[in-house]
Write a structure and sequence with these properties.
By secondary structure, this protein is an all-alpha fold. It has 2 domains: 46 residues, no CATH class; 65 residues, no CATH class. Helix content is 36%, strand content 0%. The protein is built from 4 helices and no strands. The mean pLDDT is 90.
């Protein structure tokens, strides 16, 4: 946030009278821009995960009626089917889902190899 404020001082931005828009943040009404508190709250409130969808095949205990897969990524009620992607995350992460999704795939690989050994 503070870095982008420096852009206002560039020739290109001054020529078009570009100004930083300090959006009000409902969860931090007392955070005054451009304070660290404001930018911290801004990042927490406005962070999204566009195009990194998850949570559509929730992992959870069988007692959870909204859970689709068990902790070993097996789909409840369907033999031989596992889900190994971001859809098993019951709650979306605050950051990019790439690393957690890779970890899910690696864990799935270990689970599948282990089940075939047994």
């Amino acid at each position: 946030g503070k870095f982008t404020l420096k852009l206002e001082r560039t020739k290109a931005f001054r020529e078009i009278n570009a100004k930083y828009h300090f959006a009000p943040i409902p969860t931090c009404p007392n955070a005054v821009p451009p304070s660290d508190e404001y930018f911290d709250c801004f990042m927490r409130y406005f962070t999204t995960v566009e195009y990194h969808l998850c949570g559509t095949a929730k992992m959870g205990p069988q007692s959870d009626p909204t859970a689709v897969v068990d902790p070993e990524l097996r789909v409840y009620g369907i033999s031989g089917l596992r889900v190994a992607d971001a859809s098993i995350m019951p709650v979306i992460t605050n950051g990019n889902t790439n690393a957690p999704t890779i970890m899910i795939g690696e864990k799935a690989s270990d689970l599948i190899k282990s089940s075939w050994r047994n």
